[in-house]
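Course assignment 3, question 2. Fill in each field.
Student: A.L.
Task: Predict the tertiary structure for the chain below.
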Amino acid sequence: MFHVEKYQGNKSEQYHLVIKQLKALAEGEEDKIANLSNASALLNQFLEDINWVGFYLLKEAQLVLGPFQGLPACVRIPLGRGVCGTAAAKKETLRIADVHQFPGHIACDAASNSEIVVPLISEGNVIGVLDIDSPLKNRFNEEDQVFLEEFVDTLMEYL
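Answer field:
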């Protein structure tokens, strides 16, 4: 049974705990959708000042909406479009302080002002992205990026 944790300590210690929780939730589970669903729920209860967290999965050269927490979202995103499509095409994390300044930003939720997108890479190929939006500008810093990349690397062990 899962209980909501009151995360203690500094940001690094908190991220280490959430990664440990991810491992406990995914251990022994082989279903990709189940693991992605729990991962999005876990990040939603862990991260403060966010309004959307979830996954887009690559299907036929476009990202298709997967498990998420938040308001209804864009269903399909072409590779190279918006923050998600660009991160997937470049195979690199994008941390955007102000999405309104990002060329070609796709506004699914008008309340979103900053975003971080971490590609899910398997055997050198992008299979999807983790997308997290915040109503705050400049919500995500370098430390968030490092630990969210570690979170995704851990998650990939169970996909």
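Instructor remarks: The two ends are 22 Å apart (CA to CA). The mean pLDDT is 93.
Grade: pending
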